[in-house]
Write a structure and sequence with these properties.
180 residues; binds ligand HQG
Length: 180
């Protein structure tokens, strides 16, 4: 499959599996999973045509490993990034000393007042390294990288989770843990 086509399917899957399954008449279960056959059928009705093999190719080659199959590959879900309410059943984990958040200058004033908020998603997303945070911030303009003192937060009782694709997730980062 060509890269273009893969990206098109990946974008489509992000929309359907994270934000708007109802757009093609799908319902995610409480943990975010959908039946693969049903996804393929309903996507095709929406003129997004791909085979099971092509879907597997998109999942395997995806640059950020955004999607995962269950064990017998009968179901698929997004690993993180949802705006709809799903319970990913991630285990709480002890974070490293620091994690990073890539953002843009126009949000800094508000972040200084409110800390990092999850906005439309279910968690605040943090990166394990500055290169990744730089990429995340660059989606919106000139990236600014914030350093989050995650171990201190954890020691103060805040819970952290890691998605299956290595994104650190938490509920809210109060200003006092951010090096601005
Ligand atoms: C900002 C992509 C004002 C925050 C990426 C961010 C990531 C505030 C934006 C993943 C704020 C939310 C998530 C506050 C946070 N006031 N602005 N108090 N607190 N913000 O897209 O972290 O390619 O929901 O800095 O690579 O940018 O989709 O979060 O700029 O991993 O797989 O509000 O999405 O992954 O934006 O990105 P987002 P994010 P995918």
């Amino acid at each position: 499959m060509e890269t273009n086509q893969r990206n098109k399917i990946s974008k489509f899957l992000s929309l359907i599996l994270r934000h708007a399954p109802e757009k093609i008449g799908l319902v995610l279960d409480e943990n975010g999973w959908v039946d693969v056959e049903e996804l393929i059928t309903k996507a095709a009705q929406d003129k997004m045509i791909f085979s099971r093999e092509e879907l597997e190719e998109v999942v395997v080659t995806n640059d950020k490993q955004r999607f995962a199959f269950n064990e017998d590959k009968s179901r698929i879900r997004a690993n993180q990034g949802h705006s709809i309410d799903v319970e990913l059943q991630l285990e709480s984990r002890e974070p490293p000393e620091t994690l990073y958040h890539g953002t843009v200058p126009k949000f800094l004033e508000s972040i200084r007042l409110e800390g990092l908020k999850k906005m439309n998603r279910n968690h605040v997303h943090l990166s394990p390294d500055t290169a990744t945070a730089e990429k995340v911030g660059s989606r919106r303009g000139e990236a600014v990288i914030l350093v989050v003192r995650s171990k201190a937060m954890y020691n103060d009782g805040f819970a952290f989770f890691v998605s299956d694709n290595g994104v650190w997730l938490t509920d809210h980062v109060p200003v006092k843990y951010i090096d601005l």
